[in-house]
Structure prediction request, 430 residues.
Amino acid sequence: MWMIRAAVLAALAMSVALPAGAQGIPKAQSPEEVGFVSTRLKRLSDRINEGVKNNELPGAVVLIARNGKLAMFDSFGFRDKEAKVPMTNDTIFRIASMTKPIVSVAAMLLVEEGRITLADPVSRYIPAFADTKVSVPRKKEDGTVEYALEPQVRPMTVQDLMRHTSGLTDGAVGANVVKQSYLDMKVNDRGQTLAEMADKLSRLALLYQPGTTWEYSMSTDVLGRVVEVASGMPLDKFIEERITKPLKMGDTAFEVGADKKARGARPMKEGPRNELPSVPEVTEKFVWRSGGGGMVSTAADYARFLQMFANGGQLDGVRLLSRKSIDLMTADALPPDIKMGEGMAALGALEPSARMGQGFGLGFAVRNEQGRNPLPGSPNDYSWAGAYGTYFWHDPRERMYVVFMMQSPAARLRYRYLMRDLVYQALIGN
Prediction:
C-alpha cells in the first residue's frame, strides 16, 4: 500500500499545481483528458440545476481536479437567491467545519518545529485541563441515573484533540448533563476569546475518558488555543502568516473585508418551517476565532489547500509540511477498540466507524475499506464537511479531489451523497 501511496504522491508532485485565485487555474483541454466523460459529468450539472429549480438549494460551486488539472469548475444557481444574484466561481462561503483541517495543519507545523508533540498532554499548554474530571453515569436501584466525577485515567493529549477522542463534546441539545453544561456555560459564545473558551471547558466535566470514544466535539477549538500558546501568536494571525499567505489563499480567513462582501454566498429559506438559516455574513467578525468552524473560503482557495496535500506537503515551491507528516495526518488514527459516542450515527455515511469502513485521521474522516460505506470512493481517501453545506474529499488512489460549496444546511447531507455518486460515475479513464 505504501508503494501505491508513494507513486501517487510522486505523480501529483510532478503535475501542474494550481496557481492562485479563480482566474488562470489550469484546466484540462476536456474532461476526457483527465479520465472523465463529458456526457456523464453533465449528469452532475443537470442534477444540481434541477435542485436549484426545485428549491432544494440556492446554488453551488463545484470544483473537480485530477492529475493537477481541472476537469470541472462551474457555478450553479444563485449566490443570493432572494436578490437574484447569480452564483460565480469566486463566491466566498462560510466553510464551518472545513476549518478543522486548516487548524490541524497549523498544529502540525508546530509539531515539525518541535514546539508541540502529539503525545503531549493538553495541560502542558492549558494547565487547567490537568484537573478536568470525567462524568460517569451510574444506574441506581430505582432505575434513575446519577453522575459521578472521576479523574482522567490518562491525560487528554494533543492527538486526542486532532482525532476527536478527547472526551469533549459539542454542546448539542440533549438529555446528557455534560452537554447541558456546555449550553449553560455558553461555550460557543462568539464574544469570547479562545483563552476564555478553553478556561470554560476545562472547568466542565468530560463526557468520556480520553482515548476511549470518538465524539464529534469542540476538540479542534481547543487545538486552536494550543496553537496560540505554542506559537505565541493569535490563531488567525498564525494561519494567515503560515498557511493562507504562503499558499496564496487570498479569500480564506475568519472573515473578509467589506470590499468582498458582495461575493459572499447567502442561504435561502428552507426546512419544514421555511426559515432562513443562521449563516453569518462572510464579513462578520467575531472575537472567538473558532478553530472548529469559524473560517470562510472559496472553492479555488480550498483546492490549493488540497493540492498541497496531494503534492505531499508543498505547492508552487513552498513546502508547508513534510511528506511523512501528510502520511500521518491522512492515516486512520483511531485505536481498534474505539467506541462511537451516543448519537454519532446521525453523521450517516460520514461516521468514522468500522461499520462504515472509516476511521479518523488528524482533522478529517479516512476511508479504510471498500464496500462497507454506501458512498463510492477508494481506501485511503479522506474527507470532511461543514454544517452550512460545504464538502470536500481527496482520493489519492484516483489522483483526484473535489470541492463542493453551498450554503444550505438542510440539503447538506443529501448533496454530499449525490456528489460522490455523480462524480465517480463520470470517472472512466485511468
User: Anything to note?
Assistant: The chain has two domains: 2-107+236-424, 118-231. DSSP finds eleven helices and 16 strands in the chain.
